[in-house]
Write a structure and sequence with these properties.
Length: 270
C-alpha cells in the first residue's frame, strides 16, 4: 500500500485510521500494509511496542483476498527482519477461523492479580534503592535481557516513551553498587499498577524480588494509591508465588496473545 492508495481504501467506521493517518502510517512503515480489489480489501500491520523485530496485525478485511494479503504481509515482514507477527488485542483473536487461516496460535496467556491495599510492612534487605535516572537506561535494558523472555524486552524507544508517561515511577535496586533489579509502577488517581518487576537471572532466589516488590508497594502507598493490580504470564508460577505471598489474589481479567513465528527469535525460550 502506498500513501496514494491509502486515500482510496474503504475504511469502516470502526477503523482506528482515517485516510490521512493511514497514509502517514504506510509512509512511516513501508512494507507493512497491502491492498487489493481496488481498495475494498487491505491488511495493515505495525511495530509492536516500537520494536523492529515484532509486528502486530492492526487491521485486515474479510473477503476472498484475505489469505493472499496476509501471505504478502508475512513475506514482507520476514524479509524486513521481523521474527514474530502478533494479533492486536482486539476481538479478532476470538475469530477461530481467522486464526486457523492465518496460522496464528496462542503465544501467551496473561492473568491479572490484585491487592486491595498498598500498605505493607517494611522488611530488612541488603538492597539499596534509588530512583531511575535517564543515564540508567542502557543498564536497565541490559538487565531486562537477563530477566525476561525475548517477547517482553523493551526497545529503547518504548522505554523512553514509558518513563516519560505521567504517573510512572521506576525504582532501582543495588547490591554493593551493582544493579540487580528494578520495579516500575504507574498510578492513576488512587489506582496503582505494578508494571514491571525484574531481577537479574543470576541473582534470583536471594529475596531481591520480594524487597523490590515491598519497595514498589510502599512507594505507591506514599503516592496515595489505595489498591494495586498487575499482570503476568499464566505459566510464570515463580512470580505468581511471590505475589501471592505478599497479599495479591488472582483477578477475573485474563487475555490471550495470538501470534505467528516468522523466524527464530534471538532468545528461543519464547
Amino acid at each position: 500500500m502506498t500513501p496514494v492508495w491509502a486515500a482510496r481504501v474503504r475504511l469502516p467506521l470502526v477503523s482506528r485510521f482515517n485516510p490521512h493517518t493511514l497514509a502517514d502510517h504506510v509512509r512511516q512503515y513501508p512494507g507493512m500494509a497491502f491492498v487489493g480489489d481496488g481498495g475494498r480489501q487491505y491488511v495493515v500491520a505495525g511495530p509492536w511496542r516500537r520494536r523492529s523485530d515484532i509486528a502486530e496485525l492492526i487491521d485486515v478485511t474479510r473477503g476472498r483476498l484475505r489469505g493472499d494479503l496476509l501471505a504478502a504481509l508475512t513475506d514482507s515482514l520476514t524479509r524486513g527482519g521481523v521474527k514474530l507477527l502478533l494479533l492486536d488485542y482486539g476481538g479478532r483473536a476470538a475469530d477461530r477461523d481467522f486464526c486457523r487461516e492465518s496460522g496464528m496460535s496462542i503465544i501467551e496467556r496473561i492473568v491479572e492479580y490484585q491487592r486491595p491495599s498498598c500498605r505493607i510492612e517494611a522488611r530488612p534487605s541488603s538492597l539499596v534503592f534509588r530512583p531511575y535516572l535517564p543515564a540508567d537506561r542502557d543498564s536497565v535494558l541490559d538487565l531486562e535481557r537477563e530477566s525476561f523472555p525475548w517477547l517482553w524486552w523493551n526497545s529503547p524507544e518504548e522505554w523512553n516513551a514509558y518513563v516519560a508517561t505521567p504517573g510512572v515511577s521506576v525504582i532501582l535496586g543495588f547490591e554493593d553498587e551493582r544493579m540487580v533489579g528494578y520495579a516500575s509502577t504507574t498510578i492513576y488517581r488512587q489506582d496503582g499498577h505494578l508494571d514491571r518487576l525484574a531481577v537479574r537471572a543470576s541473582d534470583q532466589g536471594r529475596g531481591f524480588g520480594s524487597a523490590l516488590l515491598v519497595a514498589a508497594l510502599s512507594q505507591l502507598d506514599r503516592a496515595g494509591a489505595k489498591q494495586v493490580r498487575l499482570t503476568t504470564q499464566e505459566d510464570n508460577v515463580r512470580s505468581q508465588t511471590l505475589y501471592q505471598r505478599h497479599g495479591f489474589h488472582l483477578g477475573r481479567w485474563a487475555y490471550e496473545i495470538y501470534g505467528k513465528k516468522l523466524t527464530e527469535p534471538e532468545d528461543s525460550r519464547r
